[in-house]
Amino acid sequence: MAMVCLSDFEAYAKKYLPKIAWDYFAAGADDCTTRDENILAYKRIRFRPRVLRDVSVMDIRTKILGSEISFPVGIAPTGFHQLAWPDGEKSTARAARAMNTCYIASTYSTCTLEEISAAAPGGLRWFQLYVHRNRAASQQLVQRAEALGFQGLVLTADLPYTGKRRDDVRNGFRLPPHMKVKNLEQAFEVCKMSPLDPSVTWDDIYWLRSLTRLPIIIKGILTREDAELAVGHGVQGIIVSNHGGRQLDEGPATIDALVEVVEAVRGRVEVYVDGGIRKGSDVLKALALGAKCVFIGRPALWGLAYKGEEGLQDVLRILQDEFRLSMALAGCASVSEIGQHLVQFSKL
Amino acid sequence: MAMVCLSDFEAYAKKYLPKIAWDYFAAGADDCTTRDENILAYKRIRFRPRVLRDVSVMDIRTKILGSEISFPVGIAPTGFHQLAWPDGEKSTARAARAMNTCYIASTYSTCTLEEISAAAPGGLRWFQLYVHRNRAASQQLVQRAEALGFQGLVLTADLPYTGKRRDDVRNGFRLPPHMKVKNLEQAFEVCKMSPLDPSVTWDDIYWLRSLTRLPIIIKGILTREDAELAVGHGVQGIIVSNHGGRQLDEGPATIDALVEVVEAVRGRVEVYVDGGIRKGSDVLKALALGAKCVFIGRPALWGLAYKGEEGLQDVLRILQDEFRLSMALAGCASVSEIGQHLVQFSKL
Amino acid sequence: MAMVCLSDFEAYAKKYLPKIAWDYFAAGADDCTTRDENILAYKRIRFRPRVLRDVSVMDIRTKILGSEISFPVGIAPTGFHQLAWPDGEKSTARAARAMNTCYIASTYSTCTLEEISAAAPGGLRWFQLYVHRNRAASQQLVQRAEALGFQGLVLTADLPYTGKRRDDVRNGFRLPPHMKVKNLEQAFEVCKMSPLDPSVTWDDIYWLRSLTRLPIIIKGILTREDAELAVGHGVQGIIVSNHGGRQLDEGPATIDALVEVVEAVRGRVEVYVDGGIRKGSDVLKALALGAKCVFIGRPALWGLAYKGEEGLQDVLRILQDEFRLSMALAGCASVSEIGQHLVQFSKL
Amino acid sequence: MAMVCLSDFEAYAKKYLPKIAWDYFAAGADDCTTRDENILAYKRIRFRPRVLRDVSVMDIRTKILGSEISFPVGIAPTGFHQLAWPDGEKSTARAARAMNTCYIASTYSTCTLEEISAAAPGGLRWFQLYVHRNRAASQQLVQRAEALGFQGLVLTADLPYTGKRRDDVRNGFRLPPHMKVKNLEQAFEVCKMSPLDPSVTWDDIYWLRSLTRLPIIIKGILTREDAELAVGHGVQGIIVSNHGGRQLDEGPATIDALVEVVEAVRGRVEVYVDGGIRKGSDVLKALALGAKCVFIGRPALWGLAYKGEEGLQDVLRILQDEFRLSMALAGCASVSEIGQHLVQFSKL
């Protein structure tokens, strides 16, 4: 079976992963409307391609918070990579470094931050944080990440409680006994009583600020009002995200929300987006609408499920090739030439 | 089979109810367009969720006409509950009281008002009235309900004649011989010649007013013009309803009509809505658009069909949990924080 | 099998008619887009039903060009009724008279005008004309119709050439040898060289006017420009029609074109519509949008195919009952109460 | 099997062509969205047909760059006609001449320009050019074409790199060994390293101008900005094209882009369109929206696959008959009567 596009990896993962793992990764909240809308919304955006521009030399590099990456696609934080591949997040870290891009490691990793760091020294990594009822546990995590050379702190804002994912309820999803949320082994046990703190508010940004010198990126913003609050509270970046449609169902597709957020932010901080990226041209659309970079979640897991580090590299390489080609066919030779003039919203 | 969401109960009821009963409950008028639109219209409403608000303590209680209920979901009036469960409306009354919410008992109950009252003393109940050609029968019913402690009188306005439900015609639907429209055993026999009075007009509100001190709620309003007339005639509440799509096909979905009615009413009376509620987030949408409370029809019957009183409680508990979760994920800690800013209409 | 709604008759006809006859009646031009759009367009119109109006006494009669009919549904001109039922147009005439409505007999009848008249003396009938290259033949037809008591002359304007109906081409459609286009046996033979005159223009209205005192109704108008021309040339009525989607594919649905035509005509002549009527509520929508009456084509043929005169009466009676019920449920007790306030166009 | 409409030829070709050839011709880039949109977009355009106009004498001829053709449909440049029929482009040339229309021969022909010319002397032909890294090879081609009597030079602007057509990747598509890109046998070998020059810009129009006196037509324009540039650089014609959806996926349908381009061009040069033409009425729509002529790609290949020269003539004849009929049914007797008043965009 030739792996030609990302849906080939999806089909592979669906076929070969244990059902309970596939269901967990695939799950959306309630009717999965938002999960699917994330993808459909890209289809409603049409390019306005320009021709006869010199695209013989293509430059697809970009920078996020000052660090250069080989192309504007990073790895979004997702949990439990050992469900996809035995080496788990260590493989993810290696693939991201090999492709010279950014990997956001999740609080819910099945490897420790130390293992992740050791697996791919020098790779560009951010750390994603869920704030715990036990604030000391969170503080310790943040400071471990900083000490290990993680270069950004991503605060997830859209999970005061876990969304209702019907298949996980039906399956009685829990980690197999030989896997652990290793970073927090002492602090809690997953899937029993939620350790996450639903009382977190904007003021806690100041608390995080007091713990670390890392840039703070807030993940889960979908409205101009919250984008304004994020900027006002001094974050360095915003990830427009609806948690892959796994939290509140029937909110906006992220690519639609991106437009609203970018407009509100007016360039004061970097804006990224995740959710629904399946082709290189989706990346081009997101950049045309103002994203500095996109992050992929499920496709990275499909790559891991296919062949671990190597499979994830395949996924990234395909996205990279497709992104370069779609840039060229749209008439852009470098990322700096990408702008809103390249796209229009279909009336359909 | 795990009962995770309301459609699980629907699937159960479809599988285990006699076809003639399932068809009767499921029926919509003509092509069933409005029945289905009631559900689809919710899908076209998108949340604008807010993040980083303290949702550690959730308060989902509300009041309708001064009575507190545990969450803004009541039981809409539907007929013939014995078709779903042997104890019929007695089970419904018990489940509603157990969940501390309001039950609107139908004129077409298969238990008497007295049986319903005795089954769940102290429960919050309203009585739904069809006006009969024999006005004395109607007067007697209203006064029995008031004497039994029912706390509201719901006048159904959209059934001068019964809608054309093709499956009922094909099935030759009628109640089995051992069931009776008990409240009216003397007054008429169902499914022969219609006893309902198609000459009822707005002036009859005054007649009802003269019969009882109960608040009058009018059910079946879909336009601003009729909402204005309702307020002008001194009703205490309006239920935006299209009778579950069982009367005039191809009218508006109730959630769409709600917007128009709420705007016309300008807070002068309480406005409720029924039709198409299938998830806790639907309740949140209805409240965001101005409903004080929603009422469920078919899902209550599915709950009864599953396990009687207990099954209906399951349905209500699922809705309650989903409503609470969707409120939290949208950034609201109490019902008073819900407002129109939470939603937008999708252009699709 | 119970005949509950018009699609029951359609299913019957599809099952029992010879394929070549079914295909001929069902045919639309090219991709059949307009044929199907005629039906879909009704679905995009939503009622705004009013409640608590006295609908105990319903009056569904109307008048067309001064003649009272029992309800605003007549029989559109369609050809070759013997393909549906042995007695052909004689059965159609009898059914229309029995239901006290108007029947527009086609030039392409398989019975003579004399046979049609004799079959149902005193029935309200109009005659539909295709203008022939042999103008004398047309003149003779018009004058025969007038002498036989037909009360209107319907000029079909949208068939300078016959549309491309792929199934008819594949089937090599032609009338079976024992059927004839009897009114024109001498003048031409169908399906060889077309006898219709593609040079007919608006000036030919004056020529028709010179032949007869009958009111002239023009059929096939879809634009405001042509509606204005029709009024300017002194016709008495307009039938908004796209020939059941059998001529130019991908023109407007007739119910959509009706709005434009009614607006242009400003009440100067009566406007009717055909195409896509499948339920009583479709009739109500057409009247709300300004039609004085609608005409049914294929459903009449299905009724004939089911049981001849009796089957067509069944179809008409169902439409009548559905129309009366939908009027009542929309809050109208008589046709004069129907108006544009009853409907709105769905944004979907 | 009767060949009644173009989709009959499509079905034939799909059934009888080798899968690798069918896939190559059918391929669209990525998800094939644009390929399919080219067709769907026509469906969203509705005619406003006019009636009672004298259409007894129909004139469907037109002129492109001064040359008369029998009707406004030419053959778009597509590659590798021997994959469809042994005689390849020689058959295409013969069919185009027989039908008195224009054939744009592709750089990627499997016959030489000399063979094409000799096959159908006197036929109206244009030559389509891909600019090579080896500019001398391109210069020689252009000058051979001019010397052979080709009357136009079509520069394809939308292929700096080849689009990603998943099926071709899966199939490992390449020409069978007995076929050659004959015009360039010395210059390159297809499907190894691309010989096309991705550095071509607008300035190269001046270079082409210096090579030949042929009118230059630019193919692949989709925006008003590029249309303005094309006019500014002195081209004689523009073909609005997205390469049949084979290059950048999710750009506009060509019929939608046509409107924008025609508006920008304001009659200064001729505008043509290709992509999605499947019926004679599509041609009418394109002309109503300002195209001087349309070109067909895949349908021509299906015709070749059916019966070579004869099959392609069948395809053209069907389009011609359908175009003539739809013109008449829309009320136009000659191409000069076609205008924007004939169409409107559906809101759906």
**How widely separated are the two ends of chain A?**
35 Å
Rounded to the nearest angstrom, the radius of gyration of chain A is 19 Å
Annotated CATH architecture of chain A: Alpha-Beta Barrel
What is the number of independent domains of chain A? 1
Number of helices of chain A: 12
Residue-averaged pLDDT of chain A: 96
Protein name (chains A, B, C, D): (S)-2-hydroxy-acid oxidase
Pfam family, one (chains A, B, C, D): FMN_dh
Keywords (chains A, B, C, D): Flavoprotein, FMN, Oxidoreductase
Binding site for FMN (chains A, B, C, D): 77-79, 106, 128, 130, 156, 219, 241, 274-278, 297-298
Tag the structure with descriptive keywords.
348 residues, two-stranded antiparallel sheet, 12 strands, alpha/beta, TIM Barrel, 40% helix, homotetramer, 8-stranded parallel beta sheet, 12 helices
What does this structure look like?
The structure is a homotetramer of 348-residue chains. By secondary structure, chain A is α/β, with parallel strands linked by helices. The first copy, chain A, has one domain: Aldolase class I (TIM Barrel, Alpha-Beta Barrel). In chain A, the strands form three sheets. Chain A has an eight-stranded parallel sheet with strand order 4-11-10-9-8-7-6-5. In chain A, strands 1-12 form a two-stranded antiparallel ribbon. Chain A has a two-stranded antiparallel ribbon with strand order 2-3. In chain A, α11 links the parallel β10 and β11. In chain A, α4 runs parallel beside α5 and α11 crosses α12. Chain A is globular. The two termini of chain A are 35 Å apart. The model of chain A has no long low-confidence stretch (mean pLDDT 96). Chains in contact: A-B, A-D, B-C, C-D. Chains A and D meet through β1 and α12 of A and α7 and α9 of D. Chains A, B, C, D: GO terms for molecular function: (S)-2-hydroxy-acid oxidase activity; FMN binding. Chains A, B, C, D: It is an enzyme of class 1 (oxidoreductase). Chains A, B, C, D: Keywords: Flavoprotein, FMN, Oxidoreductase. Chains A, B, C, D: It catalyses: a (2S)-2-hydroxycarboxylate + O2 = a 2-oxocarboxylate + H2O2; 2-hydroxyoctanoate + O2 = 2-oxooctanoate + H2O2. Chains A, B, C, D: This is (S)-2-hydroxy-acid oxidase.
